[in-house]
């Protein structure tokens, strides 16, 4: 079999759907089963924005050799919105591995994304594999770990906690937008999609309520002492949620010493924890500067986590222009000039006139400003704030580095767990 003999097309029959999702279930589910396959198919095909052409298979004649799913979403980057293809459940039939199926699927994903006018592709999957198709690391996940005794030592919050219902969709969507909307990687989410998520979630969420019953926080995705997602309006709501989490283990003979929350290390919720929590007994501390009530872990491995690649540079630049403008104005910068980036074999020209930024026509770039050379992968990392400008660009003046540092700051990317695919 050669790559050229494979074709990729939308899945067309119930049997093709079943085989693709059975392969995915066997590859990715901890406990694969026919019931799991059925649940997966109901969930995916029931998504409010699902379209049949998004579920795609590779075929050798009539033989189905693998496939993938392309979720289509709008990613936030501050005030900008970036049309993004999100690739999931990439799988090859065991009898056809190492025969070019995955490469064919990846090429189709790029072509399909271009046909849909997406600016970016995003995925998370096989370590040390996707980089060969132009993808690069754009986010390292982190978890904050909190001493459970410090949570229990705080007087009980005057907020209450109850199970989340579908009727809480509007309130929890507001909290999601408030908590994660400022991060690059947050997706635009409709109320319909939020209701669907609450209807189909595999484990119950809980919400925090004010004394008069208003929803002001939630926890989502309990996994032992780890909570996958948390949002709160204020400290009292967050405290109520954490205290609820802490007492979930009161019947255990050996409850966990710590509780863990998947959050960006510098998130405001983490700062609230630091401002209010203290270990009740520090008598055993030998070196207080090395002790903690909260510690953070970040997970790093090259080419092994969340990765992205550019699909169409002009579309991407036009999409991010509103946020570049907003960053420049927030930075109170005053500068006149032109920034020319040679991103791979394409040119990008930004014209800055005092407080205004516009995109120039690359075809009209002259020799007046020397282009800064940068790979598409490095530019993708600048886009997500994964690396600083100084770490990424070496062939630019100090003045140009200062300009680019305002436009491309670090540390603003995050993917809430309810956005994973």
From TrEMBL:
<dbReference type="InterPro" id="IPR051554">
    <property type="entry name" value="Acetyltransferase_Eis"/>
</dbReference>
<protein>
    <recommendedName>
        <fullName>N-acetyltransferase domain-containing protein</fullName>
    </recommendedName>
</protein>
<dbReference type="Pfam" id="PF13527">
    <property type="entry name" value="Acetyltransf_9"/>
</dbReference>
<dbReference type="InterPro" id="IPR000182">
    <property type="entry name" value="GNAT_dom"/>
</dbReference>
<dbReference type="InterPro" id="IPR016181">
    <property type="entry name" value="Acyl_CoA_acyltransferase"/>
</dbReference>
<feature type="domain" description="N-acetyltransferase">
    <location>
        <begin position="6"/>
        <end position="157"/>
    </location>
</feature>
<dbReference type="GO" id="GO:0030649">
    <property type="term" value="P:aminoglycoside antibiotic catabolic process"/>
</dbReference>
<dbReference type="InterPro" id="IPR036527">
    <property type="entry name" value="SCP2_sterol-bd_dom_sf"/>
</dbReference>
<dbReference type="GO" id="GO:0034069">
    <property type="term" value="F:aminoglycoside N-acetyltransferase activity"/>
</dbReference>
